[in-house]
Each structure stands twice: as C-alpha cells, then as structure tokens.
Amino acid sequence: MNIRRTATTRRAMTAVAITTGLVFTVAGCGGGDGDGDEAEKSATSTSSSGQGKGGGGKDGSEQTPETDEVLAEVKGEENITLTVTSAVRDAGGFVTVSGKVTNNGGRFWAAANWRGEERELNKNGSSVAGANLIDNVGKKKYLVLRDTEGRCLCTKFTGGVKPSQTADWFAQFPAPPEGTDKVTFQVGSMPPAPIEISQGE
After folding, report:
1. Taking the complete model, does pTM exceed 0.90, yes or no?
2. Burial (CB count <10 Å: 0-12, 13-18, 19+), residue 160
3. Residues 6+ positions from 85 with CB-CB distance below 8 Å
4. Which residues form the domain of 46?
5. What is the pLDDT of residues 68-78, one digit of tens each?
6. Of 39, 53, 66, 103, whose CB neighbour count within 10 A is largest?
C-alpha cells in the first residue's frame, strides 16, 4: 500500500511540475508578444510622426504653392493691378494672352471701360473685350477676336471683382507675323504692358 501511495504521489508531483512549467512558458511567450506589439506600435508612431513633420515627399511638395511666371504687371485705374502671366502663339493663327487682375481698392470694380468703345462690344459687359495688342515695329494694332454676334473671345467678369479679390482673365487676338514676338498689351486706361509672345506646342 505504501509503495502504491508513493508512486501515485510522485506522479501527481510530476504532473504539477509539468503544468507549472507550461504555465511559466506560456506567460513568458505572452510577455514577449506584448513587448513586440509595443515596439511595433512605437515604430509605427515614430514613422507617422516623421511623415507628418517631413518637408519632403508628396505632402510636403503640395504645401508649396506654384507661382505663375509674370511677363508684365501694371497698376492703374481704381487701384487695379493687371498681371500678364502668359502670351502664347497657337498654330491656329491667334495669340492667347492671360493673367490676373486684382482689386486693391475699397470699392466693387465692374471693368466698365475695359469692354471697349465700339458699338458691337456693348454686349460684352464687364470684360476684356476692349483690349488690344500693339506691334510697335510693324505699327499695327490687333483687337480681341469676336464671333459673328460680336461676343469677344475673352473673359467676362460676371459679377465684377470685389475689393481685395483677384480674378483670372484671358483674351485671344489675331497673331502678328512670325518673328514678331515683342508687343504691348493695353486695355482701358491701364498703362501699356510690354510682353513677349512664346510659341505654343
């Protein structure tokens, strides 16, 4: 009887020891996984914060606004600033001039005298219809192109331009002869703006 009890006791002790060892092993593995998760979270957090602060990359480049090239800029009537940013000769035989107009004054600006004085231009309202290109060498003036109903191929400032606002504009003209690249843009009572025509694709 004593031998059987001793063997049974030994078996029980062995089972307890094995169970205890397994428990410690599992706990140790669990602790290791936890540390790995924390390290991974820390690495992810560091990577995210690095991307947020970095100036390079897509996000960093998008924060830098693109600036338009300025061919000419003049200031004149009613505290208006006229900027020409592009003058391109197209294969169709015309020149497209474009830019921005900024109202630096304290009153609403309707571009009333920019539409030109010709009767057929009255339909164009607040627009750049009265603009022209002057070829000083060839002594020619080129007016804004119009359709058969007298509507200009140009920007119409629908609603005008409010104080401190900037609006984009464009106007199309017949192209001067090849080789004539330096002309003067003029509209309303704004000072003449010398510009250079570039060749389009």
Report:
1. no
2. middle
3. 68, 69, 70, 71, 98, 99, 100
4. 2-62
5. 789 999 999 88
6. 103
